[in-house]
Amino acid sequence: MSVEAMNKFRKKLEISLEGINNNNMSELIIMKQAECECCGLKEECSEAYITQIETSYSGKWVCGLCSEAVKETMKRSPETAMKEAVSSHRDFCNKYNTTTRLNPKLSFTCDMREIAKRSCESRDSTKKNLASINSVR
Ligand SMILES: [Zn+2]
């Protein structure tokens, strides 16, 4: 390799390194804490991501799980406005938060009652249900 070629190569390398540095500068990520409009989950996200989500969900930030639920609502009834879909899921979450989350034991009892009810409906499945209850414990 001639000296000239070496210099050319070095120049090229410098330019590409400069490019990498510039990219790093422009990709300086600002992290912010976002709170889910529906379930109240707090998550550290980049500002750009928060803005992107808020734009898609009528100015509200929703977590990944809730956004899936909202998307499902929109799919089921496409005439629903995004705002309505978000607030209807928020209502659902509030209901969950005031029952299951506040009183998991009560909710567990309710679930057990549901299982007992179902096993009465079908005698064959009683043994199966009891087995699954035992395995949970
Ligand atoms: Zn959520």
UniProtKB/TrEMBL annotation:
Pfam families: DUF1677
InterPro entries the record matches: DUF1677_pln
Name this protein carries in UniProt: DUF1677 domain-containing protein
